[in-house]
Amino acid sequence: MHNPSGRQRARSSAARGGRAGRAGARTARGAWEAGARRPLGGAPDRSSWEATEISPMLRLAAAYAWRLIVVGVAVYLIFAALGRFHLVTLAVFLALVMTALLEPLVSVLHRWMPRSAAVVVGLLLAILVLFAVLSLIGANVAGEWEGLRREFDGGVARIGRWLEGPPFHLRPGTLSDVQAQVSQFVARHRAALINTALSGVGRLVAVLTVGVLALFCSVFFLYSGDRMWAWFGGQLPVRGRHPVRLAGRAAWATFTGYTRGIVVVAATNAVLVGVALFVLRVPLAVPLAVLEFFAAFVPLVGSPIALAVAAVVALATRGPLVAAVVVLLIVLIGQLEGHVLHPLVMSRAVRLHPMVVALSVICGSVAAGVAGAVVAVPLVSVVWSVYGVLRPPSPAQGLSDPDPSNRP
């Protein structure tokens, strides 16, 4: 066996000592760097402390919390800006409604005439229909006013006699006392009432301004709305154009479907109410039917309120029996609207739970009155449709429903 010499043993020992020294130097240098990174006082590193001391659920909740706060502030600022310019917002909304309703007619007329002429003809036909309905209401009210006044006076007397009997047993002359108090109130506050009426002139000017602006915007929406949207999409970054295009297509499909569907539902309700009131010989059948038409634009709430007005008129002019029939009509039309018309006409456009619809109407009415109640449901429907298009579908959802916009 070969025995190494003393010189070789010394050389190998020196090599091992050099490697050990270099390893020790690296260890010392790492320890020094770790100590340099460590805060004063020997406290542990922040990232390692968070990883060991903070719950993962708490970190996840905090991450979602600040994102929700940012989104909430952005939404609040958007609605504050829209509320600041509420007349302009309302005019644009009405223009979109007119565009959704008249676009099929304009497209049909465009087959025989230029697009500009088709837009003008379509708007003129819509204005003529509106003035015809208003003229019919005015003529109906003027023709029945004298008879209605006599029937109303007699109806009030009949209601008074009915309330004086069982089961109410009111004191005789209670309604007369109420009428006298109302007359005294009007006499004492005549100046305030006149000022309120004069302030209504300013509101009338605002309404006319909104109508003219809506008509002006609808002309351009009908004539070149697709080109306006294409121009807007072209101003966005390339990566954002496709999602915006999908969101815009889904939003417009939902909005047009809702608008046309609610018009069909409102027209059906108005026809049924008008025919029923005419058969029951309740005065002002045509104005009450028109009131039902416009009230149906507020889901779940508008139709019962309009029919309640019809029930009061029937009670004052035709008696309690006819009023009870009108109340029964409220229940029947509500069932027809909720279980037949909405599923058939609006199921593809609006897939919202009735509770969501009710909360949307209430929140919209609290925020912006009647206009907010009308706008709330289509706004929530459009937002939900856009969310359904933009969110990434899960495998189970993709197999069950290939169209994300139709998910409830």
Explain this structure to me?
This protein is mainly α. The protein has a domain at about 250-408. Helices cover about 85% and strands about 0% of the residues. The chain is built from 13 helices and no strands. It has helices at about 5-35, 45-55, 55-85, 85-110, 115-165, 175-190, 190-235, 240-280, 285-295, 300-315, 320-345, 355-390, 395-400. Helix 3 crosses helix 4 and helix 8 (about 240-280) packs antiparallel against helix 11 (about 320-345). The longest helix is centred in the middle third of the chain and has 50 residues, at about 115-165. The radius of gyration is 36 Å and the shape is globular. The termini are far apart. Residues about 30-40, about 400 and about 405-408 have low confidence and may be disordered. Belongs to the autoinducer-2 exporter (AI-2E) (TC 2.A.86) family. It is a multi-pass membrane protein.
Shape: globular
* Number of H- or I-type helical stretches: 13
Number of DSSP-assigned strands = 0
* Main sheet makeup: none
The share of residues in helices is over 70%
Distance between the termini: 88 Å
Overall structural class, as computed from helix and strand content, comes to mainly alpha
Order of helices and strands: HHHHHHHHHHHHH
Instruction: Catalogue the unreliable spans.
Output: 30-42, 398-402, 404-408
Strand content: under 5%
Report Rg: 36 Å
Biased composition (Low complexity): 1-38
Keywords: Cell membrane, Membrane, Transmembrane, Transmembrane helix, Transport
Subcellular location: Cell membrane
InterPro entries: AI-2E-like
